[in-house]
Amino acid sequence: MGKPSNLKQYVVIILSMVFFSLSFVWFKVANATYGPLTIVLFRLVISAIAVFGFIKVTKNFIIPDKKDLKYLLLLAFFEPFLYFMGESYGLQYISATIAAAIIATIPLVAPFAAYIFYRDKISIRNVIGILISFFGVTIVIFNISEGITASPIGVLLQFCAVLAAVGYTTVIQKISPRINNLSIIFYQSLFGAIYFLPIWLIFEKDSFLAITFNWEAMFAIIKLALLVSSLAYIFFTYSIRNMGIIKANMFANTIPVFTAIFAWIILGDELSVQKIIGITIVVAGLFIAQWKVKKQYNGPDPIPFE
User: Fold this and answer.
1) Taking 80 as the threshold, does the pLDDT of residue 270 lie above it?
2) String of DSSP letters for 29-96
3) pLDDT at position 301, please?
4) Is a pLDDT exceeding 70 seen at residue 238?
5) Would you call 94 exposed, middle or buried from its count of C-beta atoms within 10 A (0-12, 13-18, 19+)?
6) DSSP string covering the chain, please?
7) Most C-beta atoms within 10 A of its C-beta, which of 8, 25, 80, 233?
């Protein structure tokens, strides 16, 4: 198979960002009933089962060798384990939109990791586009007249999630040429669930058993499992393969934009003129960052979606 078209690449990466954005809303719905460890553990178990069933049907399962196994264990440690620990507990202290704004700093951190580990080059146009998009993000999230206050603990935990996400993208480019997307998602969900299980047994098992079953909250967890932990990650690993770390992570700037839109549609939050202007700036920055970026990519040949 040849390299996928630019349109297909952009559709896939945007869909992954849409699902990642909805995860903030769905987590809040589930968290009204269940604790963060319960939410994460259940979504990972459901995701692992769903992805394993699919890859068995498609006969696309890959058993890793010892070298790749250590990378898969490290991958799952970064994400979902560290990432979800930071994100889930951070959302206990700050709002979904503030958390999404912090996650949008991933494109500002990822290029440094890409340069350190892979010597990926960054052009001035990329830097300008990223900064413009991030400026647009701040307009979407912050109230210019009043400013904003947030729990330092919540902010710190979200930045831990940012660092974990950067570690994830760095490791995944190491193993993606040898292991297909579906197998990667299965192993990271399986190993992530194993990491979380003992912590859940200690801290949340008793409270979970004492809670009356809530279908709305469980349905939110199922959506987190199937659409975020499974499909969104499949799309994202596909994008990293075909676009590279820097280009794929640039689109994380759209997460708070989509979050603001979904909060308006689903939760009835205000979508002001200020936020609309911010969204426009984010999109403009992404166009600038993506323009002619192909000439700068010196990494391995992209691998088509399997």
Assistant:
1) no
2) HHHTTS-HHHHHHHHHHHHHHHHHHHHHHHT------HHHHHHHHHHHIIIIIIHHHHHHHHTTTS-H
3) 35
4) yes
5) buried
6) --PPPHHHHHHHHHHHHHHHHHHHHHHHHHHTTS-HHHHHHHHHHHHHHHHHHHHHHHT------HHHHHHHHHHHIIIIIIHHHHHHHHTTTS-HHHHHHHHTTHHHHHHHHHHHHH-----HHHHHHHHHHHHHHHHHHS-TTT-----HHHHHHHHHHHHHHHHHHHHHHHHTTTS-HHHHHHHHHHHHHHHHHHHHHHHTHHHHHHSPP-HHHHHHHHHIIIIIIIIIHHHHHHHHHHH-HHHHHHGGGHHHHHHHHHHHHHS-----HHHHHHHHHHHHHHHHHHTTGGGG--SSPP----
7) 80
Residue 150, Ramachandran bin (φ over 0: left; ψ between -120 and 50: alpha; else beta): beta
> What value does the mean pLDDT of the chain take?
83
Give the model confidence (pLDDT) of 46-87 as tens digits: 999 999 998 988 888 888 998 899 999 999 999 999 999 999
Q: What is the pLDDT of residue 295?
A: 43
Q: What is the pLDDT of residues 164-192, one digit of tens each?
A: 988 988 888 788 788 888 898 899 999 99
Q: Band of the pLDDT at 144, cuts 50, 70, 90?
A: low
Domain ranges of the chain: 6-296
CB 104 within 8 A of CB 256: yes
Structure token digits, residue 195:
């990491």
Radius of gyration of the chain (CA): 19
Joined together, the tokens standing for residue 55 give 């890859």
Q: Is it the case that residue 293 has pLDDT exceeding 50? A: no
* CA–CA separation, 245 and 169 (whole Å): 6
